[in-house]
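Appendix B, example 12.
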Amino acid sequence: MSPKPIRLGVVGTGYVGLTTGACFAHLGHHVVCGDIDQRKVDLLNEGHIPIVEDGLEQMVNESRAANRLEFVLGAEAAATDADVVFLCVPTPQGSDGSADLSYIEQAAQQIAPVLKPGAVVVNKSTVPVGSTIVVEQALQRDDVSVVSNPEFLREGTAVSDFLHPDRVVIGSADVAAAERVAELYAGIDTQIHITDPASAETIKYAANGFLAMKISFVNAVAAMCEAV
């Protein structure tokens, strides 16, 4: 079943944001992606893609030609008139190992004044458990719902991972908002798991930890083989 077209805003046009925006536009939604870098916005609107991902450039340019995808300056411009807004901003690791949520908070504060009543804000950035509450506090909008929808994209296969995932995880205290986000994936054949925000955030961290463990194991085996 094809999804009902929805107007989406995407804050951030990095690896996650650009892939998310392009793939949702490919599924038929109208997507407006915002970034703070004017030069990057101009290049994207000219069809120059700064990320090497199989199929991404063609997808971006086809959606632009169909007027389903556009790039604008600033988070506010991306969020204006959007039914659902995705936050895809960096959460760099601090010197103590903790995630820096300042970009998330700034993005939420910037879009708060322009969000229409009933909008849904979706966090796709990698964040620690409890970050949904941080976004809610930054927004200060009782008429807006916040949803956690972590990404599980691998560099080099991000487009394929988005369009053919083995699961989609959606977490929110507002079940209706979670179901609205789930509807965006109607054109994708996969399992959709709706849960609470903390569980969704935990699943993302657990997945990252498992991947790190696999890499460490492979490196340990390689070192052992070198020593034999």
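The chain is about 45% helix and 15% strand. The chain has one domain: 7-227.
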